[in-house]
Amino acid sequence: MNVAIIGTGYVGLVTGASLALLGNTVKCHDIDQEKVNLLLKGRVPFFEPYLESIVQDQVTQKRLIFSSNLSTCISDADFIFITVGTPTDQVSGAVNLEYVCKAATSIGKLLTPDKSPVIINKSTVPVGSHKIVQKMIEEGVYQSGNDNVHFAVASNPEFLREGSAIIDFFYPDRIVIGSENTEALARLELLYRPLLDQSFNPPTTIPPRPEGFSQVPLIKVDPISSELIKYASNAFLAMKISFINEIANISDRLGGNIHDISRGIGLDRRIGPHFLKSGLGWGGSCFGKDLKGLVFDASASGYNPKVLTAVLESNSLQRTVPILKLQSYLKSLRGKSIGVLGLSFKPDTDDLRDAPSIEIIKKLVDLHAIVKVYDPVAMNHFRANYPSLPIKYANDEYDLVNSLDGLILVTEWDQFTQLDWKKIYDKMKHKVVVDGRNVLDKNCLEAIGFVYYGIGS
């Protein structure tokens, strides 16, 4: 099938490259010619495991094409995915649909009577946005003066975890499609049939199919329900993380062990073990943005979502926890050398959006600490985004810890658990470690001589 992707950000590029790997011809559009040139060379402008090798392979096979010419991309498309950015107002939480509306209008201007594409909104948008997309496409059609143009609009929310996006695309928990047009639903089901039946043979460029994984549920609903499924899923996961962090903070004060508590809770089948790992809270481009968007939509409809607003507040407060733990040992942090291990909001990505490291570093700077940082992937990205922060960048983990008064582990990269902690102990001035993700061996570090602080243990 012929597929067009409008926007080559995270969702658009993962979706486009993966659909090409399944045998479709995919044309990806972006207004940034420099980015297009980069992608034409098979280079991906962000870090995501497996993605670059897929892009390179599909570009070589000419199934994946990049262009800044929108007409070229959609002229023969059976499906047109809108995957542009939907930034959120940081104060009100309102979602900016400017880019979605521009994309929809531009598509409408270029539609012709000889094709009847399904136009899919895959950007995360407020509830009811499918109607706006429909109207903007119709406005574009009207401006073009074309007659007898036919199209259908559908919603197809994404559930891609950064660092695991390729796994999530090819082996998803479910696929959700929403439309008021039954033919559009049927055509989308056909597009996704190889995933639903798992009838494709996984190439070596992607992880192998999990053992026993054979069928993917398809959820066909109305557009409003599909949009709410996306918001509600992320809101629930964020709430679950914030809940276990609240329990961890209580455990700290009452003398419990959050590892045992989480296991005891998670064995209840009604709750489950996932997302019950305490730490510094969630970050990234989705949870905070979607929560704020849902709160805004609820408030605009006259409902006060108290649980959701509490989740946002709780997550923000959680980022002060490691600093309070350092202060309990070092007292004043003025002039103290503090190391931050990990910058990205989670491992296996260079994404800094809403990363806990940012607030922690800014707070340390405000407290006049001398801040040193290290991340295996996100260093250059951090330098470019925060050039005015007076911090030092280490060459590696052992360079980071030299003469430190305290160390905070912020991102749980696997390599951080494999470090030579005896060597680190010898290099540090004060031997205090705050394990912000509860991934280090507490007994081992304490046996070496460290003062160890976890989150809830």
TrEMBL record:
Which reaction is recorded as catalysed by this protein? UDP-alpha-D-glucose + 2 NAD(+) + H2O = UDP-alpha-D-glucuronate + 2 NADH + 3 H(+)
Entry-linked Gene3D superfamilies:
Cytochrome c1, transmembrane anchor, C-terminal, NAD(P)-binding Rossmann-like Domain
Pathway annotation: Nucleotide-sugar biosynthesis; UDP-alpha-D-glucuronate biosynthesis; UDP-alpha-D-glucuronate from UDP-alpha-D-glucose: step 1/1
UDP-glucose/GDP-mannose dehydrogenase C-terminal domain boundaries: 339-442
Keyword Lyase included in the entry's annotation:
no
Q: Which UniProt keyword terms apply here? A: NAD, Oxidoreductase
Q: Which SMART domains match?
A: UDPG_MGDP_dh_C
A Gene Ontology biological process noted in the UniProt record is: polysaccharide biosynthetic process
Sample GO molecular function, one term = NAD binding
Q: Does the keyword Oxidoreductase apply?
A: yes
Positions annotated to bind substrate: 159-162, 230, 275-279, 283, 346
The family note in this entry says: Belongs to the UDP-glucose/GDP-mannose dehydrogenase family.
State what protein this is by name: UDP-glucose 6-dehydrogenase
Which species is listed as the source?
A: Heliobacterium mobile (Heliobacillus mobilis)
Q: What is the lineage of its organism?
A: Bacteria, Bacillati, Bacillota, Clostridia, Eubacteriales
